[in-house]
Amino acid sequence: MDGYETWMAAVEQTYVVKFPTQHLATFGTTTVEYFIVTEPAYKMLDSQQHNTEGVVRKGKVLAEKPALITPTYAMNLDGFSSDAYEYMEHMSRVYGPNSPGIMYQYKNEAGAMDIVGGIPNEIAQRISDDLKDKNNNLSVVIVGVDELWDVALLKFIYEYTASSVSYNSQELKSAGLLTPQPSAGGIPAAAVNQIEVMFKSVKMGGSADILKSELDKWGVYRFYEDRFLELFR
User: Fold this and answer.
1) Which of 1, 38, 137, 202 could hold 5 in an S-S bridge, CB 3.0 to 4.6 Å?
2) Pseudo-torsion of CA 91, 95, 98, 103, nearest 10°?
3) Residue 166 parent element (H or E)
4) 180-215 tens-digit pLDDT
5) Do residues 219 and 97 touch, judged by C-beta distance below 8 A?
6) H or E segment and range at residue 157
7) Which residues have C-beta within 8 Å of that of residue 182, sequence separation ≥ 6?
8) Cβ contact 132:108 at 8 Å
9) Per-domain residue ranges for the chain?
């Protein structure tokens, strides 16, 4: 199998035994403890092995506070493919350059790896039951493929994000943070609040270059030009 077929096969064999019962936090960071259970790769290579055991990988996924962006802002971020930028241009045309969206950023902190007796799905169920008894609401137990265990983790991250978007969006909307601000070119209130904090930071010795870069990313420098230049007078 080629690379695509290999990881697609891994995705198809991946399933979640225990999903977090809490959404991603809207106004703070979220830490999810993960347990990924797989059949050892050496057992798959040697069909004569009859020992029943599984590999348990532990770690934490840290989700930063969801960031509010617009198509204009996304077009000024580095590191995306040309297809991604074309998509943002399309979104800008269809919904407007200041239509709000949410960007999620994650960090994986891998932990210990243990060999445990039992078949993977039974091991995963034992871990899941133990976590439920401890009321651990921010944990996930996954059964995946040994050599591509991180694919299992990415699949979970995608599903967890998708399950939280509506909740996070509603909280941001309820707080008035998605409301367009005409005086600042129509960007969301959350962006205006962030810019105001940066102006105060510059007055206290912070970087004017960072502020200028942020204004350019939002495409609103012309609305703040007089205030920005006043910082140097």
Assistant:
1) 1
2) -50
3) helix 149-174
4) 999 999 999 999 999 999 999 999 999 999 999 999
5) yes
6) helix 149-174
7) none
8) no
9) 3-66+104-174, 180-226
